[in-house]
Design brief:
The longest helix has 36 residues. The protein has 491 residues and is α+β, with helices and mostly antiparallel strands. The chain has 17 helices and 14 strands. It is elongated, with a radius of gyration of 34 Å.
């Protein structure tokens, strides 16, 4: 039997029983406690900024940080509640450069302040008292938290800046009241190319929008319309009192004529658009409240920015033609088109005509309106603003932006109607303006659910089953998308 180990002799399990070993274990345990405390201080700063300083005795700094945290959290909760109860308030907040600027600077200050609290929490944790491995871990965790939290806040501030800059592209002019409960917005497609911006309008559509429900009627005007009147007492009416009846004078040439005679329009920045508005008001009898011109390259970039648009391609659509080589075709079927192909789907005329093209353009408008959701806008917002900045020109005032976003959201759940001033209903060379105005009013009345004088319960005429130029219908019978109570069904 072996004798018991004496107090002064070495242990059978090593020298762990010595005072030095005990001190080492105590030192190790103290280091682990300090390490856990240091990590806890940084996590406390992540969850409740200022709590680490308060616990460590830096009461003034801790209380200030906690007060700021309470104010920020309270503001976020109150704002979320208000925006949930009144969504329009959120839109108005999001369209105000003042509030956006305030939010931007607030996010940057939070990023700097929170990062400083993380660094201070790391200092309070006494990193120099830790072993090398623990110090490196502390540096890594602190760096991850500093750059992670501050990076998210600074990136958010950048997105707010992008949005604010986009909002600043809108004018700050006076808002106009709706006419007979509707806003009428002229949508213009500008011909793309060197020295051609604003010189010729490639497509013209009036979006007549119910000011309460968002129910929209698209009124399409052919670019080759002739012999029409201008709005009374307008600049163009003074120049053409008998109407635009000069040789080879078409609706899409009004803009060119006005820009060649810009002095007649005083200090106007957009004489071509002003003259086109005067023409369309004279033709349709509608008051045009606002206008927006989209460069065709801008449209292509916009479609790419939202990830493409899904369209029902009924026939092969040539890419190119009419003065250039056909370089390919968009094949029939339910297809998701990128910006390049969507643009050619909308503007191709090789093997078809202007009126088929107008029908396809309305189908593109309908698809874009239906498929671009708020989630898509948020996800691709930076790309969208980059695509549209400088390529969309409008006189819509900033104060009305939120109103039209609300109307667009309402319109997504409603049918979109079309009225097009094209053959066979209208002779574009010698149009009956009274008939045109009656057609437009009838289309609006039907969209508003008013009786249009037809037999009660009468069935709508069946749409032609044939296609021509990629659109359902023919030039002689009319294209379904040009005269539709439900544009989505017609496409």
């Amino acid at each position: 039997m072996q004798p018991d180990t004496s107090p002064g002799s070495p242990s059978r399990h090593g020298d762990s029983g010595t005072p030095g070993a005990a001190a080492g274990r105590t030192s190790d345990r103290a280091a682990k406690v300090r390490f856990r405390r240091a990590l806890a201080l940084m996590l406390m700063t992540l969850v409740l900024p200022g709590s680490a300083q308060l616990v460590a005795g830096r009461r003034e700094v801790g209380r200030l940080a906690l007060r700021v945290t309470a104010v920020v959290v309270g503001a976020v909760l109150v704002g979320a509640l208000l925006f949930w109860l009144w969504p329009g308030l959120a839109l108005r907040f999001g369209t105000s450069p003042f509030w956006l600027n305030l939010l931007r600077f607030g996010l940057m200050l939070l990023a700097v302040g929170w990062a400083a609290l993380f660094v201070d929490a790391w200092r309070i944790g006494q990193p120099l008292s830790l072993v090398r491995r623990q110090r490196l871990t502390m540096v890594g965790v602190n760096g991850f938290l500093v750059f992670g939290v501050a990076g998210v806040l600074l990136f958010s501030a950048h997105l707010v800046t992008v949005h604010r800059d986009f909002m600043l592209t809108f004018s700050d002019g006076p808002a106009q009241d709706a006419s007979h409960g509707r806003y009428n917005v002229l949508l213009l497609g500008g011909d793309s190319g060197v020295d051609r911006w604003g010189l010729r309008t490639d497509s013209m559509t009036v979006a007549s929008i119910d000011a309460d429900t968002g129910r929209t009627v698209l009124v399409g005007l052919p670019r080759n319309l002739q012999n029409f009147e201008f709005a009374k007492d307008s600049v163009m009416a003074e120049q053409f009192p008998d109407g635009f009846n000069c040789p080879d004078c078409y609706l899409n040439g009004v803009s060119t004529w006005a820009q060649d005679n810009a002095e007649l329009f005083g200090k106007s920045k957009n004489p071509g658009v002003d003259a086109t508005v005067e023409a369309i008001e004279g033709i349709t009898g509608l008051d045009i409240h606002y206008w927006a011109m989209v460069d065709l390259q801008g449209f292509e970039d916009l479609v790419d920015a939202v990830g493409g648009v899904e369209l029902n391609v009924r026939d092969r659509i040539p890419v190119g033609g009419l003065g250039s080589d056909v370089t390919g075709y968009i094949e029939p079927g339910q297809r998701k088109l990128n910006g390049h192909d969507a643009l050619w789907f909308a503007r191709a005329r090789e093997g078809s005509d202007d009126y088929s093209r107008m029908a396809r353009q309305k189908c593109v408008m309908s698809a874009m309106a239906a498929q671009i959701s708020p989630a898509t806008l948020v996800q691709h917002y930076k790309d969208i603003t980059r695509a549209t900045s400088g390529l969309i020109e409008t006189n819509l005032p900033r104060s009305q932006f939120a109103t039209f976003v609300e109307l667009a959201m309402k319109a997504k759940d409603q049918k979109m109607s079309t009225v097009s001033l094209v053959p066979p209903a209208i002779n574009t060379a010698d149009p009956d303006l009274a008939k045109i105005r009656a057609m437009v009013q009838k289309g609006i009345d039907k969209a508003e659910g008013k009786s249009t004088g037809g037999a009660k319960g009468a069935k709508q005429a069946e749409k032609p089953a044939v296609t021509s130029g990629g659109s359902l219908g023919t030039r002689d019978q009319g294209y379904a998308a040009n005269q539709a109570d439900d544009l989505t069904a017609a496409c």
